[in-house]
Write a structure and sequence with these properties.
Layout lengths: L5 E6 L20 H8 L5 E6 L20 E4 L2 E4 L25 E5 L22 H7 L4 E7 L1 H14 L3 E10 L6 H12 L2 E3 L3
Parallel strand pairs: 1-2, 1-6, 2-5, 6-7, 7-8
Antiparallel strand pairs: 3-4
Helix pairs in contact: 3-4
InterPro entries: Isochorismatase-like_dom, Isochorismatase-like_sf, Isochorismatase_Nicotinamidase
Family: Belongs to the isochorismatase family.
Pfam family, one: Isochorismatase
């Protein structure tokens, strides 16, 4: 069992991010058994959950003529436009049925504000609006985080980078995460995490 000051944060293991989903990450379902086993090592487990309203600003369908995976200028910078996914209350937004929910003390929903997307479990993409996760972890004396889930190069990486920026020690289980990997995005994310002091397991 890990120390009382350690927590596992499982990022967005939802149906829409797994094979057959609206924004499927290749091999996304392959990591579930390993994550379930890893949960047993931690007394503190957090699950994040993408939870978008219909017509969310990050959906390509909300921008006439825009193609999925193109970019649009948002008030907080460039925003990748995604296929509609993880719509609140839909089957796609549900956790993958193979994921063990019982060990989780917190299920953190993010991305529910229509004008702002949210990759990180700590902040929405405006980098100002917090999710409340930092305060929740601090109240429990958590100092070190292990992160895993979907997708390595977006929500996992952004969460890990915010974790170290906020003063937590952070490691990412690359073997228990899967990436979208668009135009070198996985290599870029790993380089950014390494530079910031995130420990990558195994080393890429």
């Amino acid at each position: 069992m890990r120390g009382e000051n350690e927590a596992l944060v499982v990022i967005d293991l939802q149906n829409d991010f797994c094979p057959g989903g609206a924004l499927a990450v290749q091999g996304g379902d392959e990591i579930i058994a390993g994550i379930n086993a890893l949960m047993a090592e931690f007394s503190c487990v957090v699950l994040s959950q993408d939870w978008h309203p219909p017509g969310h600003s990050s959906f390509a369908s909300s921008h006439p003529g825009a193609a999925p995976f193109s970019q649009s200028e948002a008030g907080y910078g460039l925003q990748t436009l995604w296929p509609d996914h993880c719509i609140a209350g839909s089957r796609g937004a549900e956790f993958h049925p193979g994921l063990d929910l019982q060990p989780a003390q917190l299920i953190l929903r993010k991305g529910f504000r229509r004008p702002i997307d949210s990759y990180s479990a700590f902040y929405e993409n405006d980098r100002v609006t917090g999710t409340g996760l930092e305060a929740w972890l601090r109240a429990r004396g958590i100092e070190k985080l292990t992160l895993a889930g979907l997708a390595t190069d977006f929500c996992v990486a952004w969460s890990a980078l915010d974790a170290v920026r906020l003063g937590f020690a952070a490691e990412v289980r690359l073997d228990l995460s899967r990436a979208i990997d668009q135009q070198g995005s996985l290599d870029a994310a790993c380089a950014a995490m390494t530079k910031a002091g995130v420990r990558l397991i195994p080393q890429p």
